[in-house]
Amino acid sequence: MDETTDARSQLERMLAGDSYLAGDPELEQLSRRASVLMERYNRSSVEDHGLRREILTELLGQVGEDVVIRPPFYCDYGAQIRIGARTFVNFNLVALDVASITIGEDVQIGPNVQLLTPTHPTEPEPRRAKVEAAKPIAVGNNVWLGGGAIVCPGVSIGENTVVGAGAVVTRSLPPNVVAVGNPAKVIRSL
Length: 190
Fold this sequence. Notes:
Elements: H1 10-15, E1 20-21, H2 25-43, H3 49-59, E2 62-63, E3 68-69, E4 73-75, E5 81-83, E6 88-89, E7 93-96, E8 101-103, E9 108-109, E10 114-116, E11 118-119, H4 124-128, E12 131-134, E13 137-139, E14 144-145, E15 150-151, E16 156-157, E17 162-163, E18 168-169, E19 177-180, E20 185-189
Helix pairs in contact: 2-3
């Protein structure tokens, strides 16, 4: 069976990490819901702490205490994003949560960071048919993602690790290291 003949819904396929059709009406409805909430969040004032918290609680799967996300913030669905307590996210985070994105406690995320779970076929026909899949991303406690860092599908970043500005993380990183470059490479232990 493939993504068009499987009896499961496209949402069930997506959540299971299997190939699915991105143009599915149920998925488009969930994406629109997230877009409405993101728009409200991104228009909110810095003085609207309560409103921002309320929107994030409705949009995201889990939001720990004292989480700060500076707008603008962008995601696909929101429901698959979990953020631990005291995490700070600077401007312009793109978190494409087709698969789960788990961000630990006390994480620092610089501006213009991208957390990208979707994968796409390399063959042209399935891409034209909007076939997608995804792999989860996990960011450990006390990680620092420098500005402009990109974290690719399926990557885990160990606790206390520092990822340099502009790094492209294509493979998982262990705890307690500094990694920089494209692709990101460990340059020292902490």
